[in-house]
Amino acid sequence: MPSDQIQWFPGHMAKTRRLIKENLSSVDVVIELLDARVPMSSENPEFSSIVGDKPTLILMNKASLADPEQNKKWAEYFAYHGKRVIETDCITGAGLNKIMPILKEMLSDRLQRYSDKGMEGRKLRAMVLGIPNVGKSSLVNKLSGVKRARVEDRPGVTLTKQWVVTKVGLELLDMPGVLWPKFEDRAVGEKLAATGAIKDDILDTEAIAFSLVGRLRQMYPAMITERYKLDISSATDETISDYDFFLMIGKKRGFLVSGGEIDTERTALMILDEFRGGKIGRVTLDRPE
Are 285 and 74 in contact (CB under 8 A)? Predict the structure, then answer.
């Protein structure tokens, strides 16, 4: 899956870029969601230039699926670069109670100005940004207390902007989740595909699963061998290719077709599904620089 073949829909990004620019002046702060399993890969590089110096709070979402040690390192990384960050899980609600206290701290000067103008009751307004399937709709629903946005474990569900009033004194402007038109780094595309940020039906799921297996062998050999009941030496043995290791997983699960061949499609879908569901373990595929 060469990087120059990972092409998306520039029109969608252009539309979202326009929406962000048009509405940025009507919000006090930007809340950007990243996938804690791939914090760097899930950061849309176009957002920062569009948002400019607007105060931004980063939510490292799906933190419960990510490596706890790496969560801490990433939080330190963002803090070092002057960014406020919270580890969250928008499904369980973990960490969401920290959002308003931090926003009030970040925007204390603005809140004071509102107070001086007799506008104490004015709600803070936040624009919610993030790539597809990172949890924006779950965040909106959790903070509003009712189901305002559709939530599915697939990308591209929120297609237009929508204002949502929450129960925590915050108005949210939920924007469509989009990927940038082209990935310069092949690894970024592979990691995003593995986490489900890219629709499976437009990618070679077997190639994505191969690349994921290779990363897990290198970064979490004990975890992947334990999950699939393989000897850890098979993960660390450099004479065994990632493809052969992938076939070993399929064989162990009994995914065979006529003639004793491994059903590679079924094996790939199973590995991706188990990774996304956290069944392999708490994994982070990006490392801070």
Answer: no
Of 31, 277, 45, the closest CA to residue 178 belongs to: 45
Q: For residue 90, which of 57, 126, 59 has the smallest C-alpha distance? A: 59
Q: Is the pTM of this model over 0.70?
A: yes
Q: How far apart are CA 258 and CA 12, in angstroms?
A: 44
Q: How far apart are CA 81 and CA 91, in angstroms?
A: 28
Q: Is the pLDDT of residue 58 over 80?
A: yes
Is the model's pLDDT at 23 over the cut of 70?
A: yes
Decide if 283 contacts 37 (C-beta within 8 A): yes
User: Is residue 31 pLDDT above 90, yes or no?
Assistant: yes
The matching CATH number, chosen from 1.10.3720.10, 2.40.30.40, 1.10.1580.10, 2.60.120.1440, for 204-276 is 1.10.1580.10
CA 176 remoteness from chain centre: 14
